[in-house]
Specification:
Order of helices and strands: HEHHHE
Shape: elongated
Strand order of the largest sheet: 1-2
Number of strands: 2
Length: 97
């Protein structure tokens, strides 16, 4: 089986909601609030707290590889949210009138 590299079927930031089942069932978006930038700040805070708690992490026997991967994960996700490559949204639906 081959995988197509075409992105023609990928949803865009503005079109993704029109093809979803709830849209076909007669609902509309009442609110669509992006939280990516807020979540980037949350991840930055988690990383700061993680660094502060490193003695506790080490006391649990977690090795340097784990510590490095976890730090990388937090920083990578923060960067993705700040760059707008990934997002977190709260969407509220309402029945169409």
């Amino acid at each position: 089986m081959s995988v197509s590299s075409s992105t023609t079927n990928r949803p865009t930031r503005t079109s993704w909601h029109f093809s979803l089942p709830w849209a076909q069932a007669g609902f509309r978006i009442a609110t669509n609030a992006p939280y990516g930038e807020h979540y980037a700040r949350t991840l930055a805070e988690w990383r700061t707290r993680y660094r502060t708690a490193l003695p506790l992490v080490e006391a649990q026997g977690l090795n340097g590889r784990f510590r490095g991967l976890w730090e990388f994960y937090l920083a990578y996700c923060e960067g993705g949210f700040r760059a707008g490559c990934i997002d977190l949204r709260q969407v509220a639906l309402a029945a169409n009138p």
